[in-house]
TrEMBL record:
The chain crosses the membrane at residues 24-46, 58-79, 95-116. The lineage of its organism: Bacteria, Bacteria division WOR-3. This is Uncharacterized protein. The keyword Membrane applies. It comes from candidate division WOR_3 bacterium SM23_42. Keywords: Membrane, Transmembrane, Transmembrane helix.
Length: 122
C-alpha cells in the first residue's frame, strides 16, 4: 500500500514521472516559445533593414509566419502542462497542433529565404 502512494498513475515512481513526463513537456513549451521569439526578432531585424536601406523585405510576413509555433506551444501547455496528460489527445487536437507547427515552420522557412535573397541582392 505504501509503495502505491509513491507511484504515478501508470506504475513508475513520482520522481521518474517528473523527469520523464513533466519536465520534457515544459521544456518543449519553453523551446517553442524561444523558437517563436527568435523568428520574431529576425522579423524586427528585417524591418530595420527595410527602413535603413529602403529595400522591401516582407517583414510583416516574417512576423506573422511563426504564430503557429506559439499556437502549438499553447495547445501543448493546456493538454500536457495544465491537464497533466503525457501526450496530446488522439483524434484531432494532436493533428491540429502538429499541422500548425508544420505550416508555421514552412512559412517561416519561406519568409527567411526571401529575406536571405534580399540581403544577397538576388
Amino acid at each position: 500500500m505504501i509503495m502505491l502512494l509513491g507511484m504515478a498513475s501508470f506504475g513508475i515512481e513520482a520522481r521518474d514521472y517528473q523527469l520523464l513526463v513533466i519536465l520534457p513537456n515544459y521544456l518543449l513549451i519553453v523551446g517553442a516559445v524561444v523558437l517563436w521569439l527568435a523568428f520574431v526578432i529576425l522579423g524586427i531585424i528585417a524591418r530595420r533593414y527595410e527602413i535603413v536601406l529602403g529595400e522591401r523585405t516582407n517583414w510583416q510576413f516574417m512576423m506573422f509566419a511563426p504564430t503557429g509555433i506559439l499556437a502549438f506551444a499553447a495547445i501543448q501547455l493546456v493538454y500536457c502542462g495544465i491537464r497533466g496528460n503525457m501526450m496530446l489527445p488522439k483524434g484531432g487536437m494532436n493533428y491540429l497542433a502538429y499541422l500548425l507547427f508544420f505550416i508555421s515552420g514552412s512559412l517561416s522557412l519561406l519568409a527567411n529565404y526571401r529575406f536571405y535573397k534580399v540581403t544577397k541582392g538576388k
